[in-house]
Amino acid sequence: xxxxxxxxxxxxxxxxxxxxxxxxxxxxxxxxxxxxxxxxxxxxxxxxxxxxxxxxxxxxxxxxxxxxxxxxxxxxxxxxxxxxxxxxxxxxxxxxxxxxxxxxxxxxxxxxxxxxxxxxxxxxxxxxxxxxxxxxxxxxxxxxxxxxxxxxxxxxxxxxxxxxxxxxx
Length: 169
Fold this sequence. Notes:
Blueprint: H1 2-26, H2 41-51, H3 54-72, H4 78-101, H5 107-130, H6 139-167
Helix pairs in contact: 1-2, 1-3, 2-3, 2-4, 2-5, 2-6, 3-4, 4-5, 5-6
């Protein structure tokens, strides 16, 4: 019974992450800085990390990015490569920060590290593709966007984790 509930919750969180991914890719307007997004999919990622394990979190990120990009029509395009790289690096850093510092940091702090990591991973990849370090001039603008979006996503995930834990008691 417990494994069925776990599978159901992980499936629901994957579906929610995919919907957020597609919604953000296709329907939400771009932010004023090129490449900047709200990162709403990280809410689902943080919930998986907080309720389950780093393995489920990584599997969630890979599956969400691959399936979401297929639905958005960007699979195996440069947009997919940027999204996948940012999501994977972000998840790895959030896992590390969560494992080492959760309690000293809230999910908002974990999310903020993930948001900035996502941006930096994409900038490094862009510099590699373009062959010029000028893309790093976007760094302060992306960080200014990562702060409120990362904190918001972490607070939202923290609230949803508390509600989920309260319902399971």
